[in-house]
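Record 1 of the preview.
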Amino acid sequence: MFDTAPSGADWKPDLELIRAAAVVAGETALGYFRKSPDVRWKNEGRSPVSEADLAANDVLKTRLLAARPGYGWLSEETDDDSSRLTRETVFVVDPIDGTRAFIAGKELWCVSVAVVHRGKPVAGVLYAPALDELFEAVAGGSALKNGTAISVREAKAGETLHLAAAEDTVGKLPAVYRNTVTRVPHVPSLAYRLAMVADGRIDGTLVKKNSHDWDLAAADLILARAGGALVDLDEQPLSYNRSSVVHGVLCAAAKPLLPGLIAASRSMEPH
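->
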């Protein structure tokens, strides 16, 4: 089906579209923030969803599909529709990444919106309204934070690496690698954690299995355009809009740091 994708490699109009939509969705969610929104549980009680998630999702779906009716749609808060697999270009959305933090009144949550074309993100936006931060990138362009270019940190040999990962995961890393690492306290939004790698606040992160396309797609592009990469343990980049939207163990870091991080992840010592 013709999906009205931009001609050539110019995805800037799509970036402008998703940026504007993400800001409206973020402001919509902010209207519920710290006001005890209604919450229900999904996935057999493992995952919360608030009325703010659903309101932000409605804003995004209405605005984005009105502008690009031929694009597919994949969102954490919309029942999956296999028709997306027939579209070359798809919106991949998490209306609130970090819902638990949002419900708890913590500021580390964001709206995540990506345009994925033929399995690869080509435009991505993360908007954290409670922090007044907006990250964005487009294929072939720079990664930006509030309009200013960002890049991963270039760690020097022998420097301690700041790694975001679960405490039990860091504890299982080989001792020789673990001794070079300082664990970053828990960051409740996976997308925002990847943005922290992109802007150089941390050096890398380990992602446990079972993350989803909507957690990753926008941040993946932002990190890549900032000089980093998000890969699986076979050192392969991710592909999106497949029949399964679930991913295995992943590593994200500046490119020079990835081989060591991947090797350490592969050879975790049993506990």
